[in-house]
User: Fold these one by one.
Assistant:
Number 1:
Amino acid sequence: MVTAGKRNWLPISKPTRPTGKERQQTMIESLFFYVLSGVLVLSALMVISAQNPVHAVLFLILAFFNAAGLFVLLGAEFLAMILVIVYVGAVAVLFLFVVMMLDINFAELRRGMGRYLPLSGLVGTVMLVEFFWIFSKWTSDTAAVAPHMRHAPLEVSNTHALGQVLYTHYAYIFQLSGLILLVAMIGAITLTLRHRPNVRRQEVSRQVDRHPKDVLRVEKINSGEGVS
Amino acid sequence: MIPPVFVAPSLAVAFPLIFLAGMSLMLLLLGVARKTEDFKSVNNLAIFSLLAVAIVVARFSDERMEGLNGLFVSDPFAILMQIMVLVGAAVALSMTPRYVERERLMRIEYPILVMLSTLGMMVMITSNDLMTLYLGIELQSLPLYVLAAMQRDTVKSTEAGLKYFILGALSSGMLLYGCSLLYGYAGTTNYTALQLALTAEAGMAPGVVVGMVLLMIGIAFKLAAAPFHMWVPDVYEGAPTSVTAFFALVPKIAALALMIRLLSGPFENMVDQWRQVIIILSVLSMAVGAIAAIAQTNIKRLLAYSSIGHVGFALLGLAADNAEGARAVIVYAMFYMVMTAGAFAIVLMMKRKDRMVEQIADLAGLARSQPLVAAAMTIIMFSMAGIPPLAGFFSKLFVFQAIIDAQLYALAVFGVIASVVSAYYYLRVIKVMYFDDPADEALDRSNDPALTGVLTISVAVLLFFIILPTSVLTWAREAAAALAQ
Amino acid sequence: MLENIAFLQSDFFTGYIQPVLVITGYVLLLVVPLILAMAYLTYAERKVLAAMQLRQGPMMVGPFGLLQPLADGLKLLGKETIIPSGANRVIFVIAPMLTFMLALVAWAVIPVNAGWVLADINVGVLYLFAISSLGVYGILMAGWASNSRYAFLGGLRSAAQMVSYEVSIGLVLVCVLLTTGSLNLTDIVMAERDWWVDLLLFPMFIVFVISALAETNRAPFDLPEGESELVGGYNVEYSSMTFALFFLGEYMNMILMSGMTAVLFLGGWLPPFGIEALAVVPGVIWFILKVCFVLFVFLWARATLPRYRYDQLMRLGWKVFLPLTLIWVVIMAGVLVYAEALPNMAGG
């Protein structure tokens, strides 16, 4: 939202040839762009082709990282950090967790692959050709786009800019997202929670409620007599 | 320099939505506090709040209002569709208590998920922005996945939930891809602005066309139009029957409303491009609905294929691209709901020795054991087949009128043929009820007043529409007229 | 000679080589003291524990045992690196490196004095939060790659624990951000708060320190390593340098967490309690003293508290800290709005 529409989809062709320091910056920037996106594409490829599911998840994490790096290049540092925190720090951890604990026989899962490969390959190729076609003929209705593009105000950081619109202009959407998350929570609980009556749980309130006088009896025991 | 100040929108326009959201949260708290034995009161409160919201929506002004910074729109079309969705959800909920009691599904989350899903549909119907559209669809479908898998100890229900979820996720992906392509072209997600940007010449840009088609495919998934219908029979069969009733009654209406809204709004000037898509969807759906249903032995699967066919007919009206077409679609959706409600009331009544049965063969001999129910089923099946003078006939008639006006004769002929073929399996149900010998004991008599009530109203509407057609048609016409503005 | 000078003035040198050299210099300036601090933290830990248990601690190597950390390091270096035959070699070796690297990388944004910071970025707090949330991967990978039950259980425990406490740390950070209005760590240190806002933040300070203990797997939350049940947890199979990296990573994380506490709650390099007279002492000294104080609390807790049981630990995280911090965010936001004490209301 913040910087998207301003760029070409490949950052190589800049309109004017920059000089001196500017050129160096563009060079470093495009160097980073190619490194990040190259690793991104490669690791995305590894995600689907890795033999070991744990390796696949680790490559997915690498892919997230590189995507975050691309965000930084675009000047969207807030999105980059959120991507790392949410996807790498939370989602992928749980993912890795599950994959590590599941005992999946991947060879078994892949057996059908040879059968479906021609068809899926065909669909994939058709899609690829289509999207090449789309982007090769890509035009944007600049006259219509201009009035709608809301660039981030330059004088504030993009965290501020996002905050300003998120809780005001897009309050409705923000609340709707909240409701969707609530539904996800209700759903997860509905589908998995089982009340097992014979599980012993720790109830702190009961523990705290126990008084010595209810459960303890202090007796003076004379020698040779014992307790009755 | 002071940065631009954004103001929070006035929330008054979204009052029904906020009210429904608030009620579902309240009921959730209530349910958590009182535990599950209180299913009935939560269910009743849910029905009450759905109907209350329907009344609030009905009293909304007839003018077109945009609100919430252009993310929301309310017009007679939205009002009518919201009322249909709300009443449909209330009807579906009113049919549940006995069923879930028998199946031990008495969980307060059930009515709450239905409410939240209905809220999502209202968001879809009132959306005026691609972002609201997407969030509405997600809010609508997420509870549906959970509801389908609600009977978590049976394999079928879990499978239904999982299948629905995976295909739903796929369709969301397509929808989002479509949205992003459109946004990339027009630089806006607002419908009104999109309408200005997507002129006829924009239709030449491949990105825009692909974006639009992907968006339509995403909605077609939710609409269960062929060839995106693969999940429907399995989900209908696997989900608990009361949930299936909800699936059949409501979400399609919302998806249909969304499709109408998009085609008459942002894509208004790209008729030539989207008409082909709609025609393909419509023809395939009618064909699948007519042919695949013939081989079914399970009544829920039969109704699933029948609903695919009905979606095909409804889309036919959209292909006409005129005011009559929109009106015909609205009328079709209304009677579809009425017929489906009645049909599912009967499916929910089908039990033998207090166990649910769902084979068509189980209906054998119903004419002798319960002649009234059999007669009601007959009327519903006749109406679905489109036999005059029942309401189902008129809904088909309006659609055919609209496409003949649009001079799509081949399409009309195809529709009639599909309609005749599908009559075969509707009539087969009637034949089983009246002429087949029961293999087992007769079905139990239903003792659920809610089901009887729904069935009675449904049959009454189907029978007597011919006497009082004007008010329904006026609503539909006003709603359709609002779209054209 | 002339060519050399020309080279020094070339674009390539001023544009690339020089900045790289300067940055490397800064990094070394930060990293070398940190590694020293880490080494002496292990020494301090043994000394503090000993003092609390009325022992003497290391005394043999050097005066007062001061050379003990060096001796330990040399010993570890001299050992053989063993990679178990069933282990996943690549991940097994990457895991300790990752742990150690992440612990160092986070320091890039911590300001140790006014302007003494490697990268003064806009979203410093988020960066720290992101990096600290990555720490779990090293442990999880180590546990899995070792192909050993003890290590795996330790890894899983630790991952679950860190993820749980991260949630409350996140909400605590939100509370702090509410009072500062910036995600930049220098701004956070410099933020002027009223005394009552500080008072409001105090419970969050406590929650943060406790969560930091859990996040770094320190006592009383050191279940992942729980030697009595797991023989040492995720790092059972590690030896020599690979083990040393884990060990160093853990201590580095402790220092990092103390640094974060100092920056977020204790006013970083500023003299304590806003006493101007104390400003004669350089800021970096104050910063180090504050970090030392928090580190002492870490050690103190280890010497005093028994280890939590696993379900108790999870209960504390999810059922106590999460609701508490969540409610506190709401309360703080409400109070700040009511008192019109929100910083940057105009959005500047």
Note: Residues 330 and 476 of chain B are 6 Å apart (CA to CA).
Number 2:
Amino acid sequence: MKLPEPERREPQESTVPMINIVFLLLIFFMVAGTLTPESPLPVEPAASEAGEAVSEDPVRVLIDAEGRLAVAEEVVDGRPALRERLQGLLDEAPERPVEVMADAEADSALLLDVMDDLREAGAERMQLVTRQER
Amino acid sequence: MQIEEPPRRRRLVSLTPLIDVVFILLIFFMLASSFVEWQAFSVDAPGGKGSAATTETEPLRLHVEADGRYRIGDEALGPSGLQDRLQAVHAEAPERRVQVLAAAGAPVRSVVRAVDAASAAGLRDVALLREDAG
């Protein structure tokens, strides 16, 4: 009686090509992506076609869809608290650029209120941040 | 006579720990990096009232209604009509100032689209104002 030969084991696949690919992916994500600190509020700004570059190291005011506010990575409780915090920040560094990042669904009346607060706190210029449309 | 054994080839360093670390780095960068491109509009909020500035040329007053539609004077406009209208305004008077008057309740999305349309049409001097109740 002839027994079937035991199947020969295939040689193990080399892991080197996989490492190459993984390295490439790693380098891609390191170079192409930008590391951003986690936002204290979920904000999805509106998209726009035109626009200018955002400034570096700004005082950033966030407005989310429910109307909650945050400034300098901290959630603040209402506009009086926001104004106080802004005043402190802008007294410290009056030349710092100010950015307002408002959710697309937020009420524009609140956006204008926040802009009034910024003006009162002494911000000369402010930028409204949008997402680049492709 | 004893012949020397040929020196054994040294075993390659195992690649598995390296792959583990690279994978972890890869996953970190995939999760932590963001590919959203931000841009910004510089906007003025002069006092938040529509009637503050008096200049020689009457600025174009573009109203954003609470339901997200646009209006110039009594002429209601859709998003595409808005673009054409602003381009016509730019062709007539390239330096004309634009006031975007946002009604309470209008989402930020519509306001940003209006500012974007003005900017795309070449009108640079855009102010964001609150629409008066009256």
Note: The two ends of chain B are 114 Å apart (CA to CA).
